[in-house]
């Protein structure tokens, strides 16, 4: 399994995370920081995890290559104008062309599962996202999703709670396999240069959840 590095300087690296590896450092399991150190050619290199993707989700991520840049990149991703966008394939045909989903979410760490709840209490966090339908085919809906908050399993559980689980997402009612979710767009202001940067990448085989993405260049 190889790691695609789209950009690297002394401060940071933008990569495409493969499906099936962890976002953060781990002593025994395959993880992006170890793969990035291999790509750099330095097993002792500092690699700071700035944000996360679920193990079974692939897509664009940025990593800090110096300790001071970890916090600065984290702040950059939360600034106005920055954003993380995803492509997701839902098992049903959504009736609306676009919309915003707002919920209260509770993540059970022991079960590693997130739930939509009705009242605020300890551990409950607000979550919101917006979506736009890109394509409908074979009873499925391809949507473009923009996160306004970054909660564990947020996209997966918010759609599943509306009886629209992601294709392949067995944890939230979408059958077996791999969740049809990909982080395709990442934009932020480079903390050192001040330049606004934007990266866009589709899955390597241009397919997601059984749908072809070959016609998406004009759509997105």
Summary of the model, kept short:
The chain is mainly beta. The chain has helices at 32-40, 67-78, 154-160, 216-219, and strands spanning 4-8, 12-17, 48-49, 58-64, 83-90, 98-108, 113-117, 124-137, 140-147, 181-189, 196-200, 207-208, 211-212. It is globular, with a radius of gyration of 17 Å.
Walk me through this protein's architecture.
The structure is a single chain. The chain is built from four helices and 13 strands. It has helices spanning 32-40, 67-78, 154-160, 216-219; strands spanning 4-8, 12-17, 48-49, 58-64, 83-90, 98-108, 113-117, 124-137, 140-147, 181-189, 196-200, 207-208, 211-212. Strands 1, 2, 3, 4, 5, 6, 7, 8, 9, 10 and 11 form an eleven-stranded mixed sheet that branches. A two-stranded antiparallel ribbon has the order 12-13. The radius of gyration is 17 Å and the shape is globular.
- Class derived from helix and strand content: mainly beta
Quick check: average pLDDT?
93
Shape: globular
Q: Round the Cα radius of gyration to an integer and report it.
A: 17 Å
Share of helix, binned:
10-25%
């Amino acid at each position: 399994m190889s790691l695609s590095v789209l950009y690297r300087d002394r401060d940071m690296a933008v990569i495409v995370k493969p499906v099936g590896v962890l976002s953060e450092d781990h002593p025994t399991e395959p993880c992006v920081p170890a793969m990035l150190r291999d790509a750099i050619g330095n097993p002792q290199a500092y690699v700071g995890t700035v944000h996360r993707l679920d193990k079974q989700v692939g897509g664009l991520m940025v990593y800090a290559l110096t300790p001071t840049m970890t916090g600065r990149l984290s702040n950059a991703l939360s600034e106005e104008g920055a954003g993380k966008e995803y492509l997701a394939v839902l098992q049903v045909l959504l009736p609306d062309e676009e919309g915003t989903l707002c919920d209260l979410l509770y993540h059970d760490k022991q079960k590693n599962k997130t739930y939509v709840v009705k009242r605020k209490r300890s551990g409950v966090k607000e979550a919101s996202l917006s979506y736009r339908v890109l394509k409908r085919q074979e009873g499925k809906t391809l949507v473009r999703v923009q996160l306004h908050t970054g909660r564990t399993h947020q996209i997966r559980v918010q759609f599943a709670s509306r009886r629209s689980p992601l294709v392949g997402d067995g944890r939230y009612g979408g059958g077996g396999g791999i969740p049809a979710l990909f982080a395709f767009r990442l934009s932020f202001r480079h903390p050192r240069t001040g330049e606004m940067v934007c990266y866009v990448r589709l899955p390597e085989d241009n397919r997601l959840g059984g749908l072809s993405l070959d016609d998406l260049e004009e759509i997105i």
